[in-house]
Amino acid sequence: MRIRAAVLEEFGAPLAVQDVELAGPGPGEVLVRLLACGVCHTDLYTASGADPSGYAPCVLGHEGCGVVEAIGEGVSSVAEGDRVVTLFSPQCGECVHCRSPKTNLCMAIREQQNKGYLPDGTTRLSRGDERIRHFMGTSTFAEATVMPEIALAKISPDAAPEMACLFACGLSTGLGAAMYTAKVEAGSTCVVFGAGLVGLGAVAGARLQGAERIVCVDLSEDRLELARGQGATDVMVGGEGAVERILEMTGGFGADYTFEATGNVKVMRQAVESARMGWGLCTVAGVAGKGETLDIVPRYLITGRRVAGSSFGGVKGREQVPQLVDRWLAGEIDVGPLVSRTVGLDDVNDAFALMEAQDGIRSVITLS
Ligand SMILES: NC(=O)c1ccc[n+]([C@@H]2O[C@H](COP(=O)([O-])OP(=O)(O)OC[C@H]3O[C@@H](n4cnc5c(N)ncnc54)[C@H](O)[C@@H]3O)[C@@H](O)[C@H]2O)c1
Ligand SMILES: [Zn+2]
Ligand SMILES: [Zn+2]
Prior knowledge:
Layout: E1 2-8, E2 16-22, E3 29-38, H1 41-48, E4 58-59, E5 63-71, E6 83-86, H2 110-115, E7 125-127, E8 130-134, E9 144-148, E10 152-154, H3 161-164, H4 170-181, E11 189-193, H5 197-208, E12 213-218, H6 221-230, E13 234-237, H7 242-249, E14 257-260, H8 265-273, E15 281-284, H9 298-302, E16 306-309, H10 317-329, E17 339-343, H11 348-356, E18 362-366
Parallel strand pairs: 4-8, 11-12, 11-14, 12-13, 14-15, 15-16, 17-18
Antiparallel strand pairs: 1-2, 1-4, 2-7, 3-5, 3-9, 3-18, 5-6, 6-10, 7-8
The structure holds nicotinamide-adenine-dinucleotide and zinc ion (2 copies).
One zinc ion binds at residues 40, 42, 62-63, 169-170.
């Protein structure tokens, strides 16, 4: 079939929205008609050429929500008409990581996905004789996509697509960092650095876990206001001296749990140093620039602080994304304020520009 899609032709150049060919689903694959897709930093990072593992041409996009249009041979867990969220982090349920409760890093299709191919090493996207690669196994800046069954989470049909798509990446990453990676305990004190979608999700996740005090740190007053809406009890403008101020607020000890959601290695260090001696756990969700390293004075670790990293919030996507969506639909998570605007596919480059200007939390592309 012919579909409209936003193609990364050349690093550093605007995406080109155009018609491309999408072949039908092979065995174990699913054709998804996309309804909405969030525009995330990772798309921009790859489009800019900063990501050393990027490739072109490819169709970008990974924060997708859509409806199943057709299934390939052997597909049994989703059916035509199901509403789904796309997962760049799949869950096969069988690999050594899927069988462990300790991680969500499914190994099943990683190697091919990283190269831009579906699990059988080919693509369903093409243009004439030229094949176009799949981005993050998802390629959701498009009217439709073909994805492995194990990379689709079936969600409630009541979930509005332009909000549900945020659960495909940033929002679940933040929620999960607090709920599944850190496993925040009720009554605890948390500090979240960064109030973008990931940080705001971590604030909401800490609240859902019953944290008593949640301090959010950001440079933008507007974003700190949004953090209050997600459950922050205190907010603070960050920068130099943030650690000292957090220690003052916490009787000189620091917080039980800290979260880093900025991608800045200096802020990661602040998050480590703001964690409490004895048991403070710092969870790093931000993605640092290529080659950057995190400085930690070892004494912080010897005196009982721990550091954890979190990819996709530790969320086991097929199982837990539907649960998170249900909590939103039950009124426990306020997703509306996180969608700053909706745009058409043709405006994808404008959405990139807004993101670079830190204008709004998420722009969402509406499709179909
Ligand atoms: N681990 C994962 O699986 C995963 C998934 C999605 C995104 N990410 C990463 O998480 C990070 C956050 O993503 P986002 O979409 O929320 O980004 P964002 O840019 O919208 O938010 C980052 C926030 O950090 C704030 N900030 C910058 N410097 C600061 C400082 N010194 N102190 C306090 N706050 C500061 C900014 O004002 C901004 O509000 C990025 O690095 C992104 O690449 C990771
Ligand atoms: Zn993302
Ligand atoms: Zn697996």
